[in-house]
Amino acid sequence: MTLLKSYYQLCKPNVVYMMLICAFVGMLLAEESVNSYGYLFVALLGITLCAASAAAINQVVDRNTDASMTRTDQRPLPQGEISASHASIFAFVIGLMGALTLYFFVNTLTMILTLASLVGYAFIYTIYLKRATPQNIVIGGLAGAAPPLLGWSSVSNTIDPYALLLVLIIFVWTPPHFWALAIYRKDEYAKESIPMLPVTHGVVFTKLQIVLYTIILFIVSILPYVVLMSGEIYFFSALTLSTIFLYYSVNLYFSKDNEDAMRTFNFSIYYIFLIFIALLIDHYLI
């Protein structure tokens, strides 16, 4: 049971759960009514396996860095619960299973997009971007923003502009979300020479970027209403949530309390979850 739990933790379940929620919302928004919950389950299973594979590869690559950071030193690899070779085999097997599931039971487009997301996060971001530029989160965030597109394409077999709008919301949300955490963990990133924005440009500059990105997110978040993708329920939900997020960001900018960075980070998680739920409620009630 302990070993199973270690492999489960290797998949970064909390991150994957959030991705699946966004993918599931994309699926439901892609059609007026659900034709087959069995089909959606299979599509989610394929996406889940690939996302878990990417998470496992990330932990294999970052195992030494994880061991020296408080936030990650309890992960299975730093704790010696799983060897790097076994973790790599596990990641390959579940990634292959996910890709084959999407290819045979969903559609080729979704398989390609999902694998592109896997490669983007597990290899391009983790191996190169993370240590190459302070804009790592901005550039690499595209891979993490893909879930609603994957869900949408699994149902429609197309790359729909509405799905890309959902991707844009997550893409713009990612920098203020992660930079808030990076401020809180600045010393740990500096110790490992990882060029996160607070390390390379300072905390004050990073706080300013968080405010600016949150303003952009405020604008982007109401675009589904502007393009008639959603109605008043979503509009007022997005308006409220984005205003609260902006409050947290501005408060963080003027605050000297490092805990405000974690408060901002924690709210950002609720933000992206609730705004997608608002899209879903709006879709079915209006």
Descriptive keywords:
single chain, 286 residues, mainly alpha, Tetracycline Repressor, domain 2, 2 domains, 15 helices, 0% strand
Low-confidence stretches: none
CATH class of the largest domain: Mainly Alpha
Percent of sequence in beta strands: under 5%
Order of helices and strands: HHHHHHHHHHHHHHH
Question: How would you characterize the overall build of this protein?
Answer:
- The chain has 286 residues and is mostly helical.
- The protein folds into two domains: 1-155, UbiA prenyltransferase (Tetracycline Repressor, domain 2, Orthogonal Bundle); 160-286.
- It is built from 15 helices and no strands.
- The chain has helices at 2-10, 13-29, 37-61, 63-67, 84-105, 108-132, 136-144, 147-156, 161-184, 186-191, 197-201, 203-221, 223-226, 232-254, 259-285.
- Helix 2 (13-29) packs parallel to helix 15 and helix 8 (147-156) runs antiparallel to helix 9.
- The longest helix is centred in the last third of the chain and has 27 residues, at 259-285.
- The protein is flat and about 50 Å long.
- The mean pLDDT is 94.
Kindly summarize this structure in a few lines:
The protein has 15 helices and no strands.
Which helices and strands appear, and what pairs or packs with what?
Layout: H1 2-10, H2 13-29, H3 37-61, H4 63-67, H5 84-105, H6 108-132, H7 136-144, H8 147-156, H9 161-184, H10 186-191, H11 197-201, H12 203-221, H13 223-226, H14 232-254, H15 259-285
